[in-house]
Specification:
- β12 (321-329) and β13 form a beta hairpin.
- The chain has 501 residues and is of the alpha/beta class.
- α3 packs across α4, α7 (240-250) crosses α8 and α11 (411-424) crosses α13.
- The protein contains 13 helices and 16 strands.
- The termini are far apart.
- It folds into two domains: 10-264, 3-Layer(aba) Sandwich (Rossmann fold); 285-481, Nucleotidyltransferase, domain 5 (2-Layer Sandwich).
Length: 501
């Protein structure tokens, strides 16, 4: 722009964009805008921005990148994210701003081949080998690239930090930025912590030999959802009730991590079986007015999740072969009704194989509890069982769907995420028969990373994390399947009429 038409400040740039979108600029966005422009003008070149999930921090960083091009179209910006698809989201955001923001007039290139999804080049004077903006996944090869600004947007996610090896690999990849960034260039990290050993930590983790934090010397702006007085950072979008609902659904650990930006030690989330509420009631099945109804302790059950984590179940040795069942009632309560540790009889293996014995026990488990489906973990031994289990169900006349599940999530993380929220909310009930199994001891002795029995925990975690299955209420609708559905849902009725329209 000319001297008579000076470019806007970043705060003005953000306000103008929001007016074009018929939006107001929330206070925390004004804080971010003032911080980014102040750091840029003050030549702070190592920055860390942490703000709560869905705070619009990536939108603000996208606006900042577009504003930088208004200041200097010759800048080269590289966006690094946990994978390429995440990095492309940032480039698409910046492209959209350049196309629509009044202050960006003249920046969009005339050639369409300079306007790709993972990289683009604005109209500029300099003849440079690198594009104006380039998107890369953290595992991509960046050798030979040069950038004036590197945006590390959500490089730390569970898939890049849930094991010590992944955390080490992430740091090695990020160290490569030193060879990409030109002298005096800007490096900006944007994200939320996903582990106690986060790259965003503000104190060294001496238990793993860390003497200084990874981002030592970086200028930080941290905006949690609640301030020191318990007030919402964005009351229009996150009022008190909504924040309470997020905390209830996500559980205390995830809320502290993603909304309060605290690096939580996973070991602090150990499972407390005393938070479960015992009960002794059994299932009650009835049919009323053509509807199948399953209830428990006066509560109508609307869904069920069953999970089988198989092994050969040799008596007194090896992993246990565990099948578990969790019901959900109409008030949102979880009922952990059965956990069965199955074993085979070595003396009868010559007549009935180990796998067939276990499948037979699983079928009886399904029959007793009126289960519409069962999830079968197919890691390891489980990959051979689905066909055999389906055949056993068919031979015994039990209508049940077998859902094959291949687990790729680290077991410690899966167990903690499954139990954290329902335990904290007091929503997990447990039948007294479950308390007499090894499941209770597994809960008390469980520690992340420790080598202890957790087969029952793993099966119940699968139940809690799997999608509940609901079936039609009308028992006649499932007569051919030999078993009515009790889980709710409407059915169709075709009426005969004696008149013409």
């Amino acid at each position: 722009m000319s001297d008579s038409d000076p470019s806007p400040t970043f705060a003005e740039f953000v306000d103008l964009w929001n007016k074009e979108q018929n939006l107001k600029t929330p206070d925390h966005h004004k804080t971010i805008a003032a911080w980014l422009s102040g750091c840029w003008g003050g030549h702070d070149r190592e920055l860390l921005l942490m703000a709560f999930r869905n705070s619009g921090k990536s939108t603000m960083v996208g606006l900042f990148c577009a504003w930088l091009y208004v200041q200097n179209p010759n800048l080269r910006i590289m966006v690094l994210a946990a994978d390429l698809s995440l990095a492309r989201k940032m480039t698409r955001n910046v492209k959209r701003i350049i196309e629509r923001h009044p202050a960006c007039a003249g920046l969009k290139p005339k050639n369409r081949d300079q306007w790709a999804s993972d990289q683009f080049t604005v109209e500029r004077d300099a003849e440079l080998r690198d594009p104006s903006m380039l998107a890369k996944g953290i595992t991509a090869n960046v050798t030979g690239s040069r950038a004036d600004v590197v945006i590390c947007d959500d490089v730390e996610v569970p898939n890049t930090c849930d094991t010590p090896q992944k955390r080490e690999d992430l740091r090695d990849r990020l160290d490569e930025i030193d060879y990409v960034l030109v002298p005096g260039g800007l490096q900006l990290y944007v994200g939320t912590p996903h582990t106690y050993y986060t790259i965003y930590a503000n104190s060294p983790r001496r238990d793993v030999g860390e003497e200084v934090v990874y981002l030592e010397g970086f200028h930080r702006l941290v905006i949690p959802i609640l301030d020191a007085h318990g007030r919402s950072a964005w009351p229009d979008r996150f009022p008190e009730k909504k924040i309470a609902a997020i905390k209830r659904r996500s559980g205390p650990n995830k809320f502290l991590s993603q909304m309060m930006l605290e690096a939580v030690n996973i070991a602090d989330g150990r499972l407390d079986p005393d938070l479960m509420v015992p009960y002794a009631h059994e299932l009650e099945y009835s049919e009323r007015n053509g509807e199948a109804v399953l209830s428990l302790n006066g509560h109508r059950l609307v869904s069920a999740s069953a999970w089988w984590d198989p092994s050969f179940g040799a008596p007194e040795r090896g992993d246990a072969s565990v099948v578990a069942c969790v019901f959900t009632s109409d008030d949102g309560t979880y009922w952990l009704h059965r956990v069965r540790y199955m074993t085979h009889d070595p003396a009868t293996v010559g007549e009935v194989s180990e796998a067939q014995q276990l499948c037979g026990q699983a079928v009886e488990f399904v029959r007793e509890l009126h289960l519409p489906s069962v999830n079968l973990e197919t890691n390891g031994l489980g990959r051979f069982l689905p066909a055999l289990l389906r055949r056993e169900l068919e031979d015994r006349g039990v209508a049940c769907t077998v859902l094959e599940q291949y687990s790729t999530v680290q077991k410690d993380r899966r167990i903690l995420e499954a139990f954290d929220a329902p335990l904290a909310a007091g929503r997990l009930r447990v039948h007294e028969t479950v308390l007499k199994t090894p499941f209770l001891a597994e809960m008390r002795e469980w520690r992340p990373g420790a080598k202890a029995h957790d087969d029952g925990l793993d099966a119940v975690a699968g139940c809690l994390l799997s999608e509940p299955v609901r079936l039609p209420r009308n028992p006649n609708a499932l007569a051919k399947a030999r078993r009515p559905g009790w889980g709710g849902g409407g059915t169709a009725f075709k009426a005969r009429t004696d008149f013409d329209l």
